Amino acid sequence: MTRITILRINHRPFRDKRITTHVALTARAFGASKILIDSEDSELEATLNKVSENFGGDFNIKSGVKWKSELTKFDGVKVHLTMYGLPVAKVIDEIRKETENRDLMIIVGASKVPPEVYDGSSYNVSITNQPISEVSALAILLDRYFGGSELETAFQGRLNIHPTAKGKEVRILPKEDECIRILKKQGADEKLLKHSKAVRDLAVKMASLIGADQKIVSIGALLHDIGKTRTDGIDHAFAGSQILEDNNIDERIVKLVQRHTGAGISMGEAKSLGLPEINFMPESVEEKIVALANNLISGDTRITIEQLLDGYRKKGLNDQAERILQLHRYLSELCNKDIDKI
């Protein structure tokens, strides 16, 4: 996969901070991997790193680089964005073809650049021969390069924006310390915290072997029993999902918490248990991992699948025991290892 680096030349922190920030934000949102800036600017680095922390992605920023050295040593296609270059429509297909197996560097000047940039670039490209902001020029170049597909990139950060017809909805994907704070705010005691952390530890091990989303698994496992701060009954999973909804937690975590009981509860079973007639069956692999991990942790102690099933069968819950056994076998196969041995 082609990695795109933006090289920002002639950045003047006292004058260009805002416009260079926008160049970096555009680069990140439109598919670039990193930006290199020739002047030292720790404040700008902190701003962009905070954006990536909150909104996701692995965009990298480094300031104080020697631009001549970066331009010379870059082993890939170098595109200088300038109003005096060849029209983008005439060269974009050629650039795209040349970077099928090579990386791409885009040089964006903050002021007039020296002749070495024109001579050292593979292409000098213009969006228009009229004066234009480098921010909009970079956005158009990247959009033409990706053909619009970059706008479909799913970023996963602490804050996730879900556009609506009127306004927006912000969902939170909390970090570990935030999960603990949320649990404590709801009244979780030490016993519940220890159980949640033990479930998290096992679930993350399973997720790493399977290749599942470890962040979703970790957060979901920590919060799976938050409903027990309100009720210790069979309805605690639904109560937990409502708590998380009220706190604008990411929908994936809400569903995971709602579906973690046993190996799931069918809509028919939910009705007979006095629960809302909604889907309590785990669907995603992350939901299934947390459901099983929760079953295999009693208090904060690990138990085997046979110990768990024996308890279910003694209570006459044979159908539920069989469902859990099938889930155990399914995830063991995905792990390529018996989960009892993890």
In total, the number of strands is 10
- Overall pLDDT level: 94
Oligomer: single chain
Helix content: 40-55%
Rg on CA atoms, Å: 26 Å
Which stretches are low in confidence, meaning pLDDT under 50 for 5 or more residues running? Answer: none
How many helical elements?
Answer: 15
Quote the beta fraction.
5-15%
Structural class call reads alpha/beta
Structure summarized in a few sentences:
This protein is α/β, with parallel strands linked by helices and 342 residues long. It contains 15 helices and ten strands. Strand 7 and strand 8 (168-172) form a beta hairpin.
Description:
- The chain contains 15 helices and ten strands.
- With 342 residues, the protein is α/β, with parallel strands linked by helices.
- A six-stranded parallel sheet has the order 3-2-1-5-4-6, sandwiched between helices.
- A hairpin with a 2-residue loop joins strand 9 and strand 10 (301-302).
- Helix 4 (88-98) packs across helix 6.
- The protein is elongated, with a radius of gyration of 26 Å.
Layout of SSEs?
Elements: E1 4-9, H1 13-29, E2 34-37, H2 42-55, E3 60-63, H3 67-73, E4 76-87, H4 88-98, E5 103-109, H5 115-120, E6 123-126, H6 134-146, E7 159-163, E8 168-172, H7 176-185, H8 190-210, H9 214-223, H10 236-246, H11 251-258, H12 267-272, H13 285-295, E9 297-298, E10 301-302, H14 305-314, H15 318-335
Parallel strand pairs: 1-2, 1-5, 2-3, 4-5, 4-6
Antiparallel strand pairs: 7-8, 9-10
